[in-house]
Amino acid sequence: MPRICLIHTGGTISMEKNDHGVLQPTTQLQSYTERFPHLNSLAEIESVFLFQLDSTDLKPHHWQTIAQMTQPALLGTRL
């Protein structure tokens, strides 16, 4: 079975509606496999929480962190 590592960095996919129907960042990371249970039949899913940011707030040091986080996976080792 293929392995997929989902690295959580925030953004729209991690938002939920509040009591007023307005999207806001979640305060607690919910596993993507809980939100999308069909993923478990497609691959072995590993979720890693990195940060909770809107994509417009990502800066070069965030991209460096993402690169450092993904390098082990690209080299064939686990995160």
What is the molecular shape? flat
Series of secondary-structure elements, N-terminal to C-terminal: EEEHEH
Helicity level, as a percent range?
10-25%
**How many helical stretches?**
2
Strand proportion: 15-25%
Q: Residue-averaged pLDDT, rounded?
A: 82
Please state how the strands of the largest beta sheet are arranged side by side. 1-4
The poorly predicted ranges are: none
Rg calc: 14 Å
**Count of β-strands:** 4
Structural class: alpha+beta
Instruction: State the separation between the terminal residues, measured CA to CA.
Output: 18 Å
Biggest sheet descriptor: 2 strands, parallel
Topology:
Blueprint: E1 3-8, E2 15-17, E3 23-25, H1 32-35, E4 44-49, H2 60-74
Parallel strand pairs: 1-4
Antiparallel strand pairs: 2-3
Could you characterize the architecture of this molecule?
By secondary structure, this protein is of the alpha+beta class. The protein is 24% helix and 23% strand. The model has no long low-confidence stretch (mean pLDDT 82).
